Amino acid sequence: MKNSTHLLGLAAVLGLLTTSAVAITVGQVDTFQSGTRLNWAGGSSPTNIANGGPLGTGDRFLQLTSTGGFGQGSQMATYNDFQWAGNYITEGVRMIECDMKNLGFTDLHMRLVFFSQAFSRYTSVDPIILPAGGNWVRCYFPMREADLVLVDGSETYADALATTFRAMIRHNTVPQSTGEPIAAQLGIDNITASAGWRISGNLNLEGLSVAPPSSVMFEYRAPSSPAVVYRCPATVAPNGDYTVYSPPTPGAYDVSVKVTHWLRRTINSPNTNGDISGFDIILLNGDVDDDNEVTIGDYAQLSSAFGSSPGDPNWNAMADLDGDDEVTIGDFSLLSNNFGEVGDD
Predict the structure, then answer these.
(1) 231 and 97 in one domain?
(2) Of 34, 59, 37, 58, nearest to 46 (Cα)?
């Protein structure tokens, strides 16, 4: 079995060598709008579906179906030996992202798998868990050395990722060299090769007396423009320290953040051609009506909710500016301090 696997791998390598013009590059994206499978294959019967992708009617996506049990088609997996093969190290691809939707009745644990020309395999340490019957989810698979684990062979991370002949997306509850049977159905779309640079710093939500939200959406815009070119959720720690990925293609962007009753802040970031640290952001409080201004309208809504707590008929979570589950004089004070302030565009 091992020898036959190696022969299959060798055949794939030879195929790659004859199509060297087709290989991984930063920013490439498979949308499946061509109506084809774009070289994605596997026993899970990849099928191009005409409607129902993340954008709805007219948005094509790739549908995978696995049967469970034994034999071909038993595992939830798809792979690509063409445009997703190549040298991930020199091309600077550090993350693959895509939209996925669990169309079946069993939770899925999706991981990346990379097969090298010398038959080593690296897979994701942490899976993306897709609940059964869920909606489309934008999924981010980081693939730096700490994000992948060797499950077959002996090559270093750098050597294996420099000679990848096959990239795979597969269900595995634990990191291992082979897949596992499962009866499932999965939609996948907009598979993107990203530079995967990280921006980190501290997100200070003014006046908040409890831990901040664990996930905050960041927008990236064309410089000096309201046009949003990319969105990515930041992972936020209880002390406000955050990490977020930059757009797939490096460049100069404006970073914009708006969180519930805090005013929007839009800041020009350094060129995202490397990791950026110390990118601290402070958001001013008091935007109860969420119009990106602190005005008399916010006073009116806070006044209506004054003295309330969750469960009261006049409770308004947006008026609880300090997050202590009460609307009190402390919230009035925060609003008063920022009265007249306007958030960035």
Answers:
(1) no
(2) 37
